[in-house]
Penicillin-binding protein (Pisciglobus halotolerans), 675 residues
Amino acid sequence: MRQNQKRTFPTWGIIALVVVLIAAGGLGYVFWSKQHDEKLAQKAVEDYTQALEKQDYSAMSKMVTTASLEKIGYTKEQMIERYENIYGGIGASNIKVSDIKKEKGTDAGNYQVSYTVDMVTSLGQLKKQTYKTTLEKGEDSYQLDWNTALIFPGMAADDKVAVSTTKGNRGELLAKDGKPLATEGKAWQVGLYPVALGEGEERKKNLSAAAEAFGVTAEQLEKVLSADWVTEDSFVPFATISESEDRPELKGIVYQETTARTYPLNEAAAHLTGYVGEVSAEDIEKDPTLSTGDVIGKVGLEKAFDKQLRGKKGGKIAIKDSEGNEKEVLQENRMEDGKDITLTIDADLQQAAFDQLNGQKGSVVFTNPSDGDLLALVSSPSYDVNQMTAGISSEDYQAYADDSDSPFLTRYTARYAPGSTFKTITGAIGLDAGTTKPEDTSKVNGLKWQKDASWGNYFVTRVADVPSVNLEQAYVYSDNIFFAKEALKMGEKTFLAGLDKFIFGEDLKLPMAMKPAQISNDGKLASEALLADTGFGQGQLLISPIQQAAMYSVFANDGKLVYPKLTDDQETAEPKQAVTADAVATVKKDLIQVVENEHGSAHKLADLNLPMAAKTGTAETVEKENGEKETNGFLLTFDAESSRYMMVAMMEDTSSGKVVDTMKPLLAKIDTLIK
């Protein structure tokens, strides 16, 4: 019998196998270690550059080697302070790091790192800066060697960054004849004269009187007086008032003349010009080129044209050595004054129209319908725009905000139901469609009408009980029933097709906030009641006075709709043929009768002996507690001969008759106001 024999490896074989396994393990460890180091180094670079982009200087300070800081005599706190002072001083923002490169260094485990930084300063976009440093390996992480050259390349530890800025003059807003609407004018700085305030109870009494007079608190005055630079003989400014404001004689209060943005027409053009004010933190966040103390447009055209009016800030950012010698210019801009902007507004007409409203809630829009120039844009009641820019007290501002007449509301851009003035468009569309014929008459008895019993409790109502009216008489008497019937004759499809040739849903590209005109909430006229209501300017129609003036321009231009403009160089859409010249001629002839006919709703204007066409409108709005509805009154009128002007006037909470009475004295002076 054979016996099993054990096979054995020779000793040298076992030794060789062990050696191979150890070598393989060593190589694997080396490979793993390199990969691990690579990941740690990459993470260190990413964390540092991300903290730089966020301007988180505290986080950055934890990622640098202590040895590199000690080498230049810095602590982590001093590093943080240097970034805050320098980057804060130049208004650094929008920091973006790119082109990050990482290469093996000469020392084992270390890396050479470079990256590029883009940033915006208070002078604008800074040219790209390229940085280089070393990544040092620690026990379980990498850290950057840091010195001040990582703030700006070439910057030594004791160098400084100097910033100088110059601001140009703000451009002016000018009327068409060059009269200033927003300009540099005189104002008064209000200040405390500490030595004259007295002491103890007398001082308290004087500060309290000053606080009450200028809408601040005594605590605020105490704070400005506590500044380090204040001495007994200092002038300590705390407010600015316009030239027209009262300057009360109070103990311890002195005034110094200064310059400030002023608005010669003040309340008459406040909604149009708007006003300027110092930038807020939010403003600076939106536009990093701004810095504390800068003045920008806050509302109105001051805001819309702010960049053109503000011009370009000049200045220089430079690195200087410890002795003040300039080493390198990082950024330099030449200062540019802001541009003047000339408007189409006629300053005299603007003032006269505002005065005519006399504080009543409403608006007046004057245009040159031939070229679209906006000659006057008035909203009433208004507010003291000079007070706003000089620095309004919180109490005075709140009084405006709480005023039930809404003085901050820009009424010429707000949308309203146009009422019977819109019958001009309904008639023109019907004439073009062939459904409205000048000779046809509508027979109705009484002051209310409905198509049939399917309308239930809904009726169209009118003011005058005229048994039979044709188109001309319908305009003269402003007959709602006639135009409701004409809309029903056209039907939804035809009426909408005609309305679509106007400006519904369009942005007029004017430098002011204004929602597009709407036909209805969904753009349709699906129900008969809504179709009928729209025919006489009610329903869900919403059109601002400016938009109305643009639509009604067809009656001064043989059917062409001319888009409005506010500056001579403003680009507008090309005029479009909204209705035919024949339809316009018929409607225009009838609108002249609205003035000349003794029954016409604007007949009170006849004794002005002007070539005038007009249409009035009284639009119902919300229902009051007593069941009656509030109304807004409108008056459309234009030069029936030479089309020199068109006016759309609106007054809230009243009838068109009151608007005619109010506007008549203004129209009586139209020949002197519009040459």
User: Anything to note?
Assistant: The chain is about 35% helix and 25% strand. The chain has three domains: 13-158, 183-263, 347-400+408-673. Residues 46 and 334 are 37 Å apart (CA to CA). The first helix runs from residue 11 to 53.
